[in-house]
Sequence to fold (360 residues):
Amino acid sequence: MTSAPKPALSGVREAVRRTPAYPFTPIDAPIKLDQNESAQDLPPELRQIALERLGQADWNRYPDLHADSLRHKIAAFEDWNPEGVVVTPGSNVLIKLLTELAGVGQTVLSVQPNFSVYGLEASLLGAKSVQVPLNGDFSLPVAGLIHELKEGGPGLLFVTQPHAPTGHLDNEADVRAVLDAAGDDWVAVLDEAYYQFTPHDGRALIRERGNRVSLRTFSKAWGLAGLRLGYALTSPELAANLQKLVSAFNVNVLTQTVAEVALEHPAYMRERAAETVRERERVLSALANHPIYQALPSQANFFLLRTPDADAAFQHLLSRGILVRRQDKLPMLDGCLRVSIGTPQQNDALIAALEGSTEY
Ligand SMILES: Cc1ncc(COP(=O)(O)O)c(C=O)c1O
Fold:
């Protein structure tokens, strides 16, 4: 049988054709420590409240156009002007929209290694991407970034605090120096997906200038990755422009309803973030003197494990039912696996699996 001729697809923009798809291969494993999710779901009593409210919602009607009620609840929780809050299905969507807002035809500046979606969206949308290598200790390359900010632009700057995938948290003076250098020519984004696991909170820095944005998500500390909800905190002026790029009715009734229930009961999120931090420190100290693996310090809900052979270490953990994420192909991360913090029992299994592996 002859196969159908390959379509030429010359109508598909070259930038889209040459950009590789988001690199993720789902693998099933009993202990899933590969996506920096929360190991625990919404508490059962809150699930019950959410289900009852969903039972009363109108599923045949479009949701609120810009999710106003949810935006007001986020604003109250964050002590922010509701006019400066924009919500989308995950902060990944905001990364795309910010790239449309300030990157297309301009420059997207970030560091290397970094969260892959910044580069992916820049590539898909045909923006020029500039990535400055992190310092050897994973701290922000302040001088290099300031140079690019002053010489290049205008465009879009991404600073991730704590940084992903290293978990490094910079001191505030360094973050401030970089954001200040962005001046008015750049839209400066602080991606704070993991801020609840640190003493850091970038809101004061964002408030100082109208062209700054904080990105936050319900996917990590809130334990609601399946809901797909992220938000931007920014000035009303920038939010009004960003909102134009958000497609109408983009956060559905189910997500709006469940997120509102979570926001009415934020104590669970704070308690779990504190527990994750305790567990992170317990795991890191249990692995501190490992003869072959080096667990790197982190301020997030994950850490990097440097191994002599990432493939062998990945397969060893998988054979013990533990799935982690390989990062060893990224610049500066030779031999590294990224490991999310799980429940205490899952972390015990991780420690036992690594302790049982002292040679190849
Ligand atoms: C640094 C960073 N930013 C943003 C996101 C996107 O989160 P979401 O789209 O689930 O809100 C992630 C997810 O892993 C992340 O690590």
User: Anything to note?
Assistant: DSSP finds 13 helices and 13 strands in the chain. The mean pLDDT is 96. Residues 36, 90-92, 115, 160, 164, 191, 193, 217, 219, 225, 230 surround pyridoxal-5'-phosphate (CB under 6 Å). The domain at 14-42+268-355 is CATH 3.90.1150.10 (Aspartate Aminotransferase, domain 1).
